[in-house]
Structures
1.
Amino acid sequence: MSDGGQRERGTAYWFVGPLVLFLLALQLYPLLQEVWLSFTSTGLLTPRQQPFVGLRNYTDLVEAPELRETLVVTAVYTASCVAASVGIGLGVALLLDSPFRGRGWARALVTVPWAAPPVAVALIFSWIYNAQYGIFNRGLRLLGLPQGTENWLDSYQLALPAVLITTIWQIFPFASVVLLVALQGVPAELREAATIDGAGRVATFRAVVWPTIRPSVALLALFATIWSLRRFDLIWLLTQGGPIGATNTLVIELYRRAFVYRELGPAAAIGVVGLVLALVATVVYFRAQRRMEAA
Amino acid sequence: MTVGSRWPGRVRIVGVLVVLGVAIFPLYWMVVTSLTSSAGLFAPVPRLWPDLSELGNYPETFAIRPVGRWLLNSALVATGTTVLSIGLALLPAYALSRFRFRGRGVLGFSLFATQMLPEAMLVVPLYAVFAEARLLNTLGGLILANTAFTVPVVTWLLKGAIDAVPIEIEEAASIDGASRLGIVRHVVAPLIGPTLAAAAVIAFFHGWNEYVFAQTLVSDERLRTASVGLAGFIGELSTPVHSVMAVGVMYTLPAVVFYLFVQRYMVSDMTAGGVKG
């Protein structure tokens, strides 16, 4: 069989070879370039001249006051997306779990926001938030609320909530679907046993449902974190990070440095910071999972 | 007996309707706005349903901007991304599922790790790389860049589906003298048809929706995709809102309608591949 094993291995390398080369060229090589660029002062229009500047981009980043604000915005944005994914996702999943007439349709239609292109979502929400004619403010004015005259996206206090509402509208369907599937894994007998014991709804949830879906919740939280750290198009198109940095996440700041200020070096340094954050989130997740499995 | 079944019936119906309303309203509102007269857009009382006599707003948009060209470019990029993603992913997915080889774990982890890289970050070095390779301002370059982000997901999905194919079926074919390649093509691929379709849909709409590469790596107007064209309307005030929304509907509708057709397969596969890994 050892001969067969060797031939199998040969076939395996031949099968994965093209993909590996492709990923080396279009993911790993650019990634290494990114790290290298972060130690240079390369300009957008002269990408071949890459003067080495050591750690200067990083020290500049740490010394500039904007970085702290950017990190705070990124943290608030990410934490809100994760909390909303889990909270709203779980609520909607529980709502759509039990059978009722039209459930198939309801499940399909609820997930539609997920299928909408982000650019179209940004377009429609920027119209919905329009100061004078947006349906959002018209509704607020009908209710006699004072917020009914300004565009939320132009307000320092309200821009981040407005961007979050838009983002959560787009991502909650994914969370709902993941948790809906996780709920299918809860054994019906267990739940019935809990009911016969006279356990209340909350107690049943904590004792029987939560332990089953917890791995899915954790994985969902990890993906929501990574995707929030990555998200560009929605935020950029709604606010470009403004007003005055109120919605300026790391990725937005990175893109502005690169393609508005045309400085690839500092942009790359911000990218490396973002990557480290994503990596930390992943390590925390796998640590927590191992502890959960051990327990 | 399922988790929610002790929710009082009426509360649940209201809850479902509220969630549905929230999910559907923004897209409904885009359609309504595209079918509202200029006067109606700014009327004191908003009109909450579409005015079908305004259907002319749709053909008019083609005179304002090269919308047909944009949609065609998006379709080309999306198709290219789909074909290349599936083509690059099928054999590695099979190898990851069936073979034990050195580097298998590294490859599996790398596929997951690509999920951490933001497109908006990678576009910086890619811009430099593409400038060198003369791939700036080409739809082919866009297809390559998009595929770099879809191919890991597609590989993962296909591997999950192949895991579920009983090995005995392949052994029978192998006794008949079929090669590995033949087995993948004639035995495995047909058996994972629904997942292949779901993966194709995911790759297609990633390419269709993609914005940051199309915005950054292409500046030639003839190669502009619909995502970039549509984004150009945001914050711009000279084009009538109903025309802008008409373009938005034409760009969004294919994605949503197609999604509704395939969601049954997609949702189950996504979750099977994504959660159970």
2.
Amino acid sequence: MANALSIKNLKKTYANGFQALKGISLEVGDGDFYALLGPNGAGKSTTIGIICSLVTKTSGKVHIFGEDIDQDFSGAKRMLGLVPQEFNFNVFEPVEEILVNQAGYFGIERKTAFERAEQYLKQLGLWEKRRAQARDLSGGMKRRLMIARALVHRPRLLILDEPTAGVDIEIRRSMWRFLQELNQTGTTIILTTHYLEEAESLCRHIGIIDEGELIESTSMKQLLSQLQMETFVLDLKSPLREAPRLARDGCLRLLDEHTLEADITRDCSINFLFDELSRHGIEVLSMRNKTNRLEQLFVHMVESNDASGAEK
Amino acid sequence: MTLQEQFIAFKTIVIKEVYRFSRIWVQTIIPPVITISLYFIIFGKLIGSQIGDMNGFRYMDYIVPGLIMMAVITNSYANVVSSFYGCKFHHHIEEMMVSPIPNHLIVLGFISGGIARGMAVGIAVTAVSLLFTSLSFHNLAVIISTVIMTSALFALAGLINAVFAKSFDDISIIPTFVLTPLTYLGGVFYSISMLPEFWQRVSHINPILYMVNAFRYGFLGVSDINIGLSYIIIIGFIVALYSYAIYLLRVGHGIRR
């Protein structure tokens, strides 16, 4: 079966000579939930722009479910939905009409378009606002409107470019649930985000772009297994003045007098950690994994790439 | 896309465009009607009564077709240039770019919107002209075909202007410095036979002269220009501008990074 997305040696040089993409090759499987990460200006939005024909590529090949965007332009676009980073709808149009018009551009009958608009507006909590002009929506609602619009023609591949930027945590989490359900029904999702916690909890595969090059493309599990250390946050029963030293395989840091952070090597058992804490008379009320594991790796990889680039 | 899907996509653009200018009719339909009414009063009634006949017709009767055509030209142009540039400026042109609509349907959709506004204003101005004079129709087919083709031509010109425009200033430069002078010098208010021979020849370079005269022929049965030549010129311009507009969209000029 064809991959949802296949990119081969994609290059883009802008008119001012800036080389945004230096030959990216990438595969995203059918049904995957893929995170495309990278620092600002790394080339993520350029890559997405080329896939969705908003940016003209300099060279390379892009296939969407086996359809070459240079050969079967119409067939490839039909399978693709885009939620861009910037708001790009007519702010003077009513919400429902934005969806119905978008469906019309894909050749969907008006009656069907209205039915689908109702379905997605209800699912994304915008049905009450269907008659409102888009400019009257809050930032979070505008983001959800763009998701509804991208889905109205039922694409097999949905690309979201920072869909949760500037959205409060409650709406962000409801959007995560919606995207997870969508992915479970078979829609392939590619997500770019600056919230690495979001990528870690949603995505099964990950690609990291830096300075126009793909420096990593692997499964989330495999990437996280590269971590040599595991970090836990411990809530303490009694206040502590100083963090004790571990006999081996890690260290402890005191965040505040009731919170201790423990770094232990991955091959070290948690029992060892608790034996050590007991030895120092420390009682633990609760414990959780520190959620920025991906962030540690991401920063490390981008810094290493920058350092190797500087050496060259 | 199947033919039926293409028709739905085309219809969607047309409905959206017509809805856009109808929703703000006070800004799009009323101002040209007021402007042209002032022309009727000042040039047709007040000054026209002192001028006498032109080519055997009362001056008011002579200028009515030209004034209607002037309103059609400026409004079909203004509709597409502002709508398409607005789409670019607010980035919602991307809604069409990510969809499978072929470029020719995008162009045809916007042109149809321009024709619709040109016709709406043309009909309104014609209705107002009946307050000042009684219109005669020498050849209805020539009137209808000329007005549709002319509005299509200027809608295309508006679209091309919008593709190149980088700011809202850029969409007013062509109407102010090119379109208005060409319209005024295109025989709206006079017959070019009144001009010295040199200026008559110069006037033949002006494409609007052919449209105004073909339209006037439809009403009065007189023209400074051969009607067949007028049709050839108008169709030639439409084909050239349409091909250029398609080329610009295909290469993504001004809309694709």
